[in-house]
Design goal:
Structural class of chain B: alpha+beta
Largest sheet of chain A: 3 strands, antiparallel
Structural class of chain A: mainly alpha
Number of domains of chain B: 1
Number of strands of chain A: 7
Largest sheet of chain B: 3 strands, antiparallel
Radius of gyration of chain B: 18 Å
Oligomer: heterodimer
Helix content of chain B: 40-55%
Number of strands of chain B: 3
Order of helices and strands of chain A: HHHHHHHHHHHEEHHHHHHEEEHHHEE
Largest interface: A-B, 61 and 60 residues
Order of helices and strands of chain B: HEHEEH
């Protein structure tokens, strides 16, 4: 690698770390409780939001905008981990890969919709965290009726003894019955068990069923169906958010008066109009600004659409050429490039936001012109999300590797029955105290092996990522990049699937073989070999 | 110094002394006074703190592997199977880490074709 490119790479990576876009693999942790401080701002923000939504963290402005670990955050994480069940998660107050995965299972509308795949070590009905997730889901889908007073907060008792919760779940159960989502063995009244939760959490099935339901259902459950539409449109990257309806102000039409009059209209209506602008071929006779079964038919169509990966991403040059033709107008092109530069600078900021931004930027500017752009947007959004997860997990591994490089004597806290000293050239000295019968079973030895393994995986991961980044940077900013450099770079990610698959494979191997279990001072992890 | 720059530099330095791999296992005791929160950063620091009279160590095993494949190994007759296994394991780890580092450098150097 040329010296210039090499310097540009580590400078760029370090700058991204200092701005909080990337997790910081070199952070010197003061205590085990501060481990999430090494993560990117986007990640911590996402964690806080999820904990607030589930009612583990108070819903204050400070808690929503905070990007560091504080006592309340750690307490909330521990509470959540305890509620999930100690056989599933350790109560260490750290949101690592396992805690994150469970949070995603409970919160996300698009991932892991089958509770059977959550891999809890206790029946789901015994986990208070699952009950909270069910409550939250019913609330977001509008089944509580009153949005404000029923919002899930800290201290709210979430069992089926809670009257509002039971009523909302029962209302949903009747709705599911009319949508024919319940099988013959389904109980008459809902319970917090696997089979009922399967119906509640399978968002895609609900959307599909709404596509073929009659008008009367839309009348009877208008508020709830609007809430479900908001969720689905939000997932597609449109400018609406799940939960209570948001209103926008519009000037009233009519003769001018001294005082301007405004009327409030639901943001959803505007978003639906935008959706039909983007997908005119699916519209049929659907109304422009209202919920209808046609809308859900279109949404179902998009759900069932084959994966956009079939697009020929190897032919990046021709795609960029085509886009150059589409955005031939100079102003549009400038705006397009600006948007992409913003996107590029915050690409690791958050999964959902990346997908939304990519989707909006591309589809907003050129989707009216050609289907190519829509496919492109879906492709890039999907790929970006996938890569974000891999990179976040990869940096965790590199963090372990950096710990290995940093410590040349192990454990750091002495005295200890087994001590391992090692140099940068990997020469080792092993010291065993007289009374130690089985050195390999000592905590120090096991932890040392874990860090050494992290180092090996980290070398591989960094090698692959650096290769990938170098190519992307070159495509984005090199002499051949052209005005759509960053777009070209994003598309080029598709070319590096094999690299990312290797990284992903290494990470899975690492996560399968080891589990983090305890806490040791400073940046050292204590582990149990699984 | 940035963490990535730091990591690249350390790995680069490690590559300069890869001609042999030495693993040595000792058993015994070292008495040293540790003051305050400052812990020794490497084994030489521990020895310096202890002084020769407080170090009672017995060499249990030693393995030196040269890059050309020559291996020089010593093992005390009193070494237990567990201690021997720990020693062998560290030799393997050292080899694996060295290979991972060399492989990493290869990958980075191999990027010349796109620069």
């Amino acid at each position: 690698m040329s010296e210039q490119l090499y310097t540009a790479l580590h400078t760029g990576l370090d700058e991204a770390v200092s701005r909080g876009y990337l997790p910081n693999p070199g952070v010197q942790l003061e205590s085990i409780d501060k481990r999430n401080d090494s993560d990117s701002r986007g990640y911590v923000w996402a964690l806080r939001t999820r904990l607030i939504d589930l009612g583990y963290l108070g819903d204050s402005k400070a808690n929503r905008s905070g990007t560091v670990t504080d006592k309340a955050f750690v307490r909330a994480v521990r509470h959540f981990q305890r509620d999930v069940g100690e056989d599933t998660l350790h109560q260490d107050g750290w949101v690592g890969p396992k805690t994150w995965r469970i949070l995603q299972c409970l919160i996300s509308f698009e991932e892991q919709q089958e509770p059977d795949s959550w891999n809890f070590n206790i029946p789901l009905s015994q986990s208070p965290a699952v009950a909270r997730a069910a409550y939250l889901r019913l609330w977001v889908m509008g089944f509580f009726g009153d949005w404000k007073s029923t919002k899930l907060k800290r201290g709210v008792d979430v069992t089926l003894d809670n009257q509002a919760f039971r009523a909302a779940f029962t209302r949903f159960w009747k709705f599911a019955q009319r949508l024919e989502l319940l099988d013959d063995e389904a109980p008459a009244t809902p319970q917090l068990n696997e089979s009922c939760l399967r119906v509640l959490f399978n968002h895609d099935s609900t959307v599909r069923a709404l596509a073929s339901s009659g008008k009367s259902l839309f009348q009877d459950y208008q508020e709830q169906i609007e809430a479900i539409a908001r969720i689905e449109l939000w997932l597609l990257g449109y400018d609406c958010v799940p939960g209570p309806p948001r209103m926008i102000k519009r000037r009233r039409h009519g003769p001018r008066k001294k005082r301007t009059k405004w009327r409030k209209i639901p943001r959803l209506n505007k978003v639906i109009g935008k959706f039909w602008d983007d997908f005119p071929s699916l519209k049929d006779n659907a109304p422009d600004d209202r919920i209808s079964s046609n809308l859900f038919s279109a949404l179902r169509g998009l759900l069932d659409e084959p994966a956009p990966a079939k697009m020929d991403v190897d032919d990046v040059d021709s795609v960029v050429l085509k886009l150059n033709e589409l955005v031939s107008d100079e102003d549009t092109r400038d705006s397009f490039i600006d948007s992409f530069e913003n996107l590029a600078s915050s690409i690791w900021d958050g999964v959902k936001r990346i997908a939304k931004m990519v989707w909006r930027v591309i589809s907003g500017l050129v989707s009216k012109v050609n289907n190519l752009a829509r496919n492109l947007a879906r492709f890039v959004a999907r790929e970006s999300r996938q890569y974000f997860h891999i990179v976040v997990r990869a940096v965790d591994v590199v963090q372990g590797g950096v710990d290995y490089l940093r410590n040349s004597i192990f454990p750091q806290r002495l005295p200890a029955p087994v001590v391992i000293a090692y140099g940068a050239d990997f020469d080792h000295q092993l010291f065993i105290e007289k009374a130690t019968a089985k050195p390999m079973e000592s905590a120090a030895y096991i932890t040392y092996r874990q860090l050494a393994f992290c180092y090996q995986a980290g070398c591989m991961v960094m090698g692959e990522l650096i290769g990938l980044l170098a190519r992307v940077v070159k495509l984005a900013s090199g002499p051949l990049a052209g005005p759509l450099g960053w777009l070209r770079a994003l598309l080029a990610l598709g070319r590096f699937r094999s690299s990312l698959k290797q990284v992903d494979g290494a990470l899975k191997m690492l996560e399968k073989n080891y589990k983090v279990s305890g806490n040791v001072s400073a940046a050292v992890m204590q582990i149990d070999v699984a | 110094m940035g963490v990535f720059r730091d990591a690249f530099k350390t790995i680069g330095e490690a590559v300069t002394d890869m001609s042999s791999l030495d693993v040595v296992t000792y058993k015994g005791s070292i008495e040293a006074e540790l003051s305050g929160n400052k812990m020794p950063e490497n084994f030489q620091d521990v020895l310096n703190l202890a002084g020769t009279s407080e170090v009672k160590l017995k060499l249990l095993a030693s393995t030196q592997m040269k890059l050309d494949g020559d291996i020089l190994a010593y093992s005390d007759t009193a070494i237990t199977p567990e201690e021997a296994e720990a020693h062998r394991d560290l030799v393997e780890l050292g080899q694996e880490n060295r290979l991972a580092t060399i492989d990493f450098v290869h990958r980075v150097v191999g990027l010349d074709d796109i620069a």
